[in-house]
Structure formats: C-alpha cells, structure tokens
Amino acid sequence: MELETFKSEIEAAVPGCRLEIIPNPSPSAQHSLLVDPEHGLAAAYYLRDTAQFNFCTNVTGIDWPPKEITEKIKIKQIVDGVEKDVDQVRKTSVPGYLEAVYHLYSIDRKVGPLPLRMRTADRDSRVHLPSLTPVWRSAEFQEREIYDLYGIFFDGHPDLRRLLMWDDFADHPMRRDYVDPDDYEYEPTAHDQVLARAREHAAKAGAL
Amino acid sequence: MSTTYAPSAESLNTDTVLPEQYLEVSMGPQHPSTHGVFRMNVVLDGEQVVKLKPVFGYLHRNHEKIAESESYLGNMPYTDRLDYICSITNNWAYAIAVEKLGGIEVPERAEYIRVITGELTRLQNHACLLGFLLQDMGASGTPLMYAFRERETILDLFESLTGARMMCNYLRFGGCRVDLPAGWLDNAKAFLAEFPRFLDEFERLLVGNEILMERSQNVGVLSRELAINSAISGPMARASGLNYDIRKVDGYSIYNRFSFRIPLGSHGDVYDRYMIRFLEMRESVKILEQAMREIPAGPIQNPAIKARLFRPKPGEAYGRIESPKGELGFYLISDGSGIPYRYRVRPPSLINLTVLEDLCLGHNVADVVAILGSVDIVMGEVDR
C-alpha cells in the first residue's frame, strides 16, 4: 500500500515525526495519514515537494467531543464460595479533541485523495495546530473557516481572522456542543415547536 | 524551506494607518457586480488597487451544521441551495459522496440521465456567466438576454423533468428520482440541434470587439503554479493552462465512454477565462449528442437502496465532481446512524476566490469587476 511507503519515507526524512495510518472501514477505502502537530509542517513539505501531492483540495475540521464507551465484560468472581461469570459494565472515557483534515491530490501523478490529519491535544486550551498555508495556499481561507467555526488556532497562518461569522462573535458554531444563544425575536406562529420555544423564551426574558 | 505562495506581508496588516494618498473603498455588499452579497475592502492609490480583502459571510446560514441534523436523504434538496444556478450538479456531487460511503452501484440509464442533465446544467451556467461577465464589462443587456433566452429553454426542460426550474432536487444516491417523461429526449435533442447556432451567434457578437479585448487581455493573469498551489479548479484553472478536468482524471460516472477534449488557455487572463467557456460549451454539446444517442432503457434506481432508512457503515468518504464552477466535493463521515456525523462541502467558488487579491493587485478598480466576473462565483456556495 502506498500509504505505508509514505509513512516510512516521511519518518526517514523528518526525524522524530510520528505517523499513524488511520484505516477507513467504509467501501471508499480512503485511508488517512495522521501526523503529529510538531512535525506537521515538515511532513506537509515532504508530501508536496517529494511525493508530488501539490493539489490540496479540501481542508476541514472535525470535532470529536469526549465520550464514554460502555462495554459489558464477563469477569470471574467468587460468589458464595463458587466461581461464577459475572457481568460487569466497564466505562472508559475517551478524551475529546479537534481534528483538521487536508485532502491531497497529485496533479502530475493523478492520484488521490490522501487525507492528511492533525489532532489537537484537547478541545479547550490546547487547540493549536501548525498552519499549512505556507505549503498549500488553498488552505488560506479554509483554515480561517476552521478557526471561525471550530476554534482551532493555526500557528503561522498569515491572516487568521474569522471568515464567515462576524468579528465580535465569541463561540464556534460547528462544535458538537454548541448551544445557540436565546436572543431571537420569536414570531408566535401556529407551529407547536416554535410556540413552545417562544414561551420558554418569554419566561426567561420576561417579555414576548 | 521550499517555495511558498503565501500572500505578501504588506497586503496583510488590516488595521494599520494608511499612507495619505491611499483611499479605502468598500465595494459591496450591495454592488451590482458582486453577484450577490459579497464585499471587497479595496485600498486604492488613485485608480490602482494596492490591497484587496474579500469579506464573506453575508449569506452564511451554516449549511453544514444544519446538514448534520438531517438524514442522508433529507440533505439532498438542501444541496440545491448551494450553487443555485446549477442545482443538478450539486445533487450529483452529494450523491457521489454518499455512493462512495455506502458502496452503492448506479444503474446505467441513471448514469446517462445524470450526464445529460449535468451537461445541460453546464451549458446554462456557462451561458449565464458569459452574459453576466459582459454585462459587468459594460455590454448592457443584449448578451445577457441572449444567454437567458437559451437558459429559459433548459429550465423548461428541467421543469418538465423534475417539476422545478431551479431547485431540481432530482438525483438520489443510487440513481435518479423519476424517469424521463415521454417526448423529453426529443425536446432536448431539438434544443441541442439549435444550440451551436446560438454559440456561433454569441461568440461572433463580441469576440473580436476591441473594447472587450482591451479590458480583458492581460488583466488578472493567473500563473499555472499559483493555480495549482491554491487548488484553483474548473474553467479558471484550465484557462491558466492546467490540464485538470475531473471528468477525465477521475472518470467518474460514465465520462470515459465519451470522446471530448479539454480546452486549455495559455495566458490565464480574463480573456482566456472568457473564451474557455465557449470552448467548453462546444465540448459539452459533443458529450450531450453522444449521450442522447446511446442512452439505454432500463431501471433508473438501484432497488437495493432504501433511501429513507439509509444507514451507511461507519467510515468516511470524499467524493467530487467537475461542476461548472470547478471541483465540487463533499466529505462525509458516518458514525453508523442515519445522520451524517460530519458533512463538509468543498465549495469551488470560495476556493477560487483565494487568489482574487493576487489577480487584482496593480490593476484599476474597473478591472476588479471584470476579474471577479471571470472567476464565476455564486454566493450561496461561497458563504454556505
């Protein structure tokens, strides 16, 4: 598989670079390459200049909130002096993170897509990733969009401002746990849902 | 480090005090040449552009967020609203992404119908764009009305096929929604027989016009290297001599069955972007003639797909097509439920605007209008 060649080549060319192949179980079979943020820029330069992935089509963010995985396992326990299989629920919590995905194509070799991924350490304070705009200019607006909608800071981006929301806006609306502010002017219509929401709003704000 | 194509440092500082002779002008959001609610912050030295920053978001409705709470089928009509001039190609790109995600086969007749409707969409998009561009450059009325006359016929065809003129909501993953009605193909063939005559007339109207050449040649030149690095796609990239057409490269659907050529420009200026659309329309006519001749009978929908209960296995897929504006892609992540976990649109209009400043620097304000017109944007897709 080509991805494994890239992995070993990049690891040889960029000392200390940690790479991981993320398998994609869907029929599309577009397996992706996960790179650690410290060496992301160097790996991207390698992919552009040596592996000829010169066309970075799509740049996007993904939010993976922390989740708890509950699984039932059987463990052996001694109950009343007799060894029995007892069901036990084991909970493992997976910490959340934000992810940036770059879909790379090669114009000359006519191959692709190669999804290149980078992950932040968490979702709150350590949300910095290196900007790949110096490598692929096409990331300029798209990284701004990710910064705007997901709140990933791209270090080294030449012009990191909000792209779609207005400048005073505080939140990041594409995050999974985003709650939209209760500041609308509700028009009481015949829709039950809207009516219920309007009443809720009136109770909170004191006026309709 | 290697070559970078980042914007120049002096073009970046947005809130520094400007030198005295400079003037900052806000073009838009309600400017007739911005093709919707789009604004450019332009800094001028006399008539010359020194800095240009596009401002987006006036039409932002967070399409992607809404789509992440709808079923896979429920998103199909919503894709119409992205690039509202070419709704069928939007459907097509989304359908291809879902088909990659779910490993869905499409019947042969449905593929032919997709090619026919998709190429008709390309014809009307390019014709309209040329009309808009000429209108922007001062050829008031006539070219635009000629283009709209042809578009009207195509919209009539869409109406009799899908029930809607612009928001067609026609394709489904695994096929199409309805079969061609009786007589539709004959009407389409009759239209297609007339179309090259319109192209000749439209091309002759202004192609050697001195004012047009003066205003568009060597204006807004985009180099091939910058086009690749900024992922410029579609007619804009091909006008810069980049031989990259996804219909040929990916050979998606059944495009490898048809013989057609990829027209390329050599200068990458506004004039090349203008001419390349005429040439592309002529190639589309060739594809349409072949597709309408060869279309087989058969089913139009994969019977194994239960569209309303569609639940793909966990995984992700990026699917893309050559839409009239460039590479339109959809990136979907499934977590195994009936609702996409992540739904991303790769909008060609927005990404083609990345180099707008590079194209405009050093030109006059009036050229900005022509350059923006030649990029071909639709704000429904830029802002999503």
Number of helices of chain B: 15
Report the sheet with the most strands of chain A, covering strand number, pairing sense and barrel closure.
5 strands, mixed
Output the radius of gyration of chain A.
23 Å
Gyration radius of chain B, in Å: 21 Å
Fraction in helix of chain B: 40-55%
Series of H and E elements of chain B: EEEHHHHHEEHHHHHHEEEHHHH
Q: In percent, how helical is the residue content of chain A?
A: 10-25%
Which chain pair has the greatest contact?
Answer: A-B, 43 and 53 residues
The succession of helices and strands of chain A, N to C, reads HEEHEEEEEEHEH
What number is the mean pLDDT of chain B?
88
For the record, give the distance between the C-alpha atoms at the N and C termini of chain A, rounded to a whole number: 62 Å
Strand residue content of chain B = 5-15%
Mind explaining what this structure looks like?
The complex is a heterodimer of chains A (about 210) and B (about 375). Chain A is of the alpha/beta class. Chain A contains 4 helices and 9 strands. Chain A has helices at about 1-15, 40-50, 140-150, 190-205, and strands at about 20, 30-35, 55-65, 65-80, 80-95, 95-105, 110-120, 130, 155. In chain A, the strands form 3 sheets. Chain A has a 5-stranded mixed sheet, covered by helices on one side. In chain A, a hairpin with a 4-residue loop joins β6 and β7 (about 110-120). Chain B has about 375 residues and is of the alpha+beta class. Chain B has 15 helices and 8 strands. Chain B has helices at about 65, 75-80, 85-100, 110-135, 140-160, 185-205, 210-215, 225-230, 235-240, 245-250, 270-295, 350, 355-360, 365-375, 380, and strands at about 20-25, 40-45, 50-55, 170, 175, 315-325, 325-335, 340-345. In chain B, the strands form 3 sheets. Chain B has a 3-stranded antiparallel sheet. In chain B, a hairpin with a 7-residue loop joins β7 and β8 (about 340-345). Chain B is globular, with a radius of gyration of 21 Å. The two termini of chain B are about 35 Å apart. Classes of the chains: A alpha/beta (about 210), B alpha+beta (about 375).
